[in-house]
Amino acid sequence: MSVLSEPHFHNEEAAFERLEAIVWPEGPVCPKCGNCEQNRITRVTGTTARTGLRRCLECKKQFTVKVGTVFESSHVPLHKWWQAAHLLASSKKGISAHQLHRTLQVQYKTAWFMFHRLREAMRDGVLSPMGGEGKHVEVDETYIGRLKGAPVKAGGSHKNTVVTLVERGGRARSFHVDTARMGNVMPIVRANIARESALMTDESGIYRRAEQDFASHDFVTHSKDEYIRGDVNTNTVEGYYSIFKRGMKGIYQHCGEQHLHRYLAEFDFRYSNRIALGVDDNNRTVRAMAGIVGKRLKYRDSSGVGAE
């Protein structure tokens, strides 16, 4: 039986119950006053009551599980949000808003905005240090898209610059930076990687002083066709970029600079919650939905619709 045949993908009441179990594992919590006394929160019933509506007897406010999340004020049925989350979480290279528009039978701009809200939910809000004693973290930079109004130049200066940190056998974390310079990249590396880690990079001068900050720093010299030397390589982060670029070029095709950080969050999320780490498509979807709390993204904040 298909995962998508489960009730919460088709039935609105089941969709609310499934989300409530994730967001409120110990029962409803009022997002207005913080009341969590179950005997002081009642379910609003009646023929005109919205699905999942509750009333707090402390502050007298009504709310659903969507309040205080990326779903707040959305008129899209919650079961369609579940479908969209599953499609985005389970597609290795992503899925276009045009495809979602056709699949869910919603307007294109609605599909586009739904995906950006879900990417916001996927964004890692707790940036604990990567790596640690005995662990290897690879760092590399790449170039994607094209800066608006920038003439094409050699070396990628006309493109958006991305820096990615990948812990071998673990998570990925990516950042959009102005330029690939030591002053832009190394503060990110220091802030996100534990000092006890072994750092792996290429021969770029960006990292020439990195041994001062970590247990060790080794690099491969790509300009001399050196790609691996013992356990020294950047193959893991390059594998991440291979998936990222195929998704951005083949699926999304166009990405405005103002949206790039959310696409990075999407690819980081799927990589950090991949099958190799014991996370299947269903659990990955649940983890994405667990990230909706405390995040908002309004349509005007997303700076208009971009092509996908």
Can you offer a commentary on this structure?
- This protein has about 300 residues and is of the alpha+beta class.
- It has a domain at about 135-265: Ribonuclease H-like superfamily/Ribonuclease H (Nucleotidyltransferase, domain 5, 2-Layer Sandwich), CATH 3.30.420.
- The protein is about 30% helix and about 15% strand.
- It has helices at about 10-25, 80-90, 95-105, 110-120, 180-190, 235-250, 260-270, 280-290; strands at about 40-45, 55, 60-65, 135-145, 160-165, 170-175, 200, 215-220, 230, 230-235.
- The strands form 3 sheets. A 5-stranded mixed sheet has the order 6-5-4-7-8, with helices on both faces.
- Strand 9 (about 230) and strand 10 form a beta hairpin.
- Helix 2 packs across helix 8.
- The protein is elongated and about 75 Å long.
- The model has no long low-confidence stretch (mean pLDDT about 95).
Highlighted features:
single chain, 308 residues, Nucleotidyltransferase, domain 5, five-stranded mixed β-sheet, 8 helices, 15% strand
